[in-house]
Design brief:
- The structure is a single chain.
- This protein is mainly alpha-helical.
- 56% of the residues lie in helices and 5% in strands.
- The chain is built from nine helices and five strands.
Length: 287
């Protein structure tokens, strides 16, 4: 994505720190974080997350200080805005250097950027497209994908229209990429029989887009293959209720046919048990 907009942001969302991102010490999806465990570093200024996220997304080019200052502090005169930006950059540079080393942020008197080489792979957003692409499920990556939130989750400033537009565009863009990565990892986990990861990712996709019957069918198939057809059919009944109650519609034919196949498998599996029970009752009556 390329844009001329910069964001300003609020504090990172509070709550659980979330699942650690394998190999990425800087987290921008969900609760923002620099470093992991005992090496985690806090930012002094809330707008430091704005600068960091923008530079990470808009990597590879230099951003004039005057432009950043004007967009982050639109109500201040240029001198005051540049002073604020200088303080934010100083704190941000120290935090990043402490967590991952020097050379990631490149700051001079006129402009700022992230070094494309030094910053490669440091951010969780850098790992999305590779997740699940090798066909082999990684439980740590699967857990992170199931837990990953939106870009700068819970962050925003009133009165920053350009920020709101930029952030909305980026959130939609990353949501699409996360969804594709979750689908890849879900399918890879299911193929390898890693049902815990497959179910977690399938449920995350359904929660993200409950009207997507493709996601619903995938969850039903995984539960049925896992040996929980009753749970699969419960998901189908919930979908039917939601569609009828909210939209006045019925599931697609493919979804209904899948549910019927699962029911048929349940009946075939139950039939031998019923015959065995019946034979046992006849024997007891004849005794």
């Amino acid at each position: 994505m390329r844009t001329n907009r910069l964001i300003s942001c609020g504090a990172p969302a509070s709550g659980d720190a979330g699942t650690a991102v394998p190999g990425a010490p800087i987290r921008l999806l969900g609760e923002c974080r620099i470093g992991t465990g005992t090496s985690e570093v806090a930012l002094q200024y809330r707008k430091g997350w704005a600068v960091l996220a923008y530079l990470a997304v808009e990597r590879g080019r230099r951003h004039p200080r005057t432009r950043l200052a004007a967009l982050l502090w639109p109500d201040l005169d240029e001198r005051a805005a540049l002073t604020n930006l200088r303080q934010v950059l100083s704190n941000l540079n120290r935090a990043v250097a402490t967590a991952v080393g020097d050379g990631v942020l490149q700051i001079d008197r006129e402009s700022v950027r992230l070094c494309p080489v030094a910053s490669a792979g440091l951010f969780d957003i850098d790992l999305i497209d590779a997740a699940g692409s090798d066909g082999g499920p990684d439980r740590r990556v699967a857990a992170w994908l199931a837990d990953a939130g939106t870009l700068l989750e819970g962050i925003g400033f009133e009165g920053c229209e350009e920020f709101d537009e930029w952030l909305a565009e980026c959130r939609a863009w990353f949501a699409q990429r996360l969804s594709a990565a979750r689908e890849r990892m879900r399918d890879a986990a299911a193929a390898m029989g890693d049902w815990r990861a497959a179910v977690a990712l399938a449920r995350q996709l359904v929660a993200q887009d409950p009207w997507n019957e493709g996601h619903q069918c995938a969850l039903m198939r995984i539960l049925a293959e896992k040996g929980e057809p009753d749970m699969a059919l419960a998901c189908y009944r919930k979908l039917v209720h939601r569609l009828q109650g909210d939209l006045g519609e019925v599931p697609l034919r493919e979804t209904s046919e899948l549910a019927e196949r699962i029911r048929g498998a349940c009946r075939r599996k139950a039939a031998p048990r019923l015959r065995a029970v019946g034979a046992g009752q006849l024997l007891s009556l004849g005794a």
